[in-house]
Design a protein that fits this description.
The chain contains no helices and nine strands. With 113 residues, it is mostly beta strands. The protein has a single domain, classed as N-terminal domain of MutM-like DNA repair proteins (Alpha-Beta Barrel). 21% of the residues are buried.
């Protein structure tokens, strides 16, 4: 919806280890260490898989638990790509033109995309 600012500071995510993945009807919650979280309400891709949209009926996101983010890429259009220490990736799309697609909460800040 809002995209990501060009000056988005990806260092707030780099090095964060994924501790827990939670699913609700139309959200996926990723809980990282250091009080960091990402709430997904849009389409996402884990690795090379086809885009998944809520409600999520099955997922392999649990394979990311315990892994740290090693690299973050983003586009001003809102696409966020997380690469984990073992090479797995998670791409989150900003594909909800009228609604929030995902929210990042880290270091006392909330970024709504």
């Amino acid at each position: 919806m809002y995209g990501l600012r060009k000056d988005f500071d990806a260092t707030i995510l780099v090095g964060r280890a994924l501790n827990m993945v939670c699913f609700a009807a139309y959200q996926v919650y990723l809980h990282f260490d250091s009080d960091t979280s990402i709430t997904i309400e849009s389409g996402f891709r884990h690795g090379d898989r086809v885009s998944t949209r809520p409600p999520v009926l099955h997922s392999e996101l649990m394979r990311l638990v315990g892994l740290a983010i090693s690299e973050v890429e983003w586009d001003p259009d809102g696409t966020l790509k997380l690469r984990f220490q073992d090479g797995q990736s998670l791409t989150i799309d900003d594909d909800q033109p009228a609604y929030e697609s995902y929210t990042i909460a880290a270091k006392g800040r909330t970024i709504i995309v």
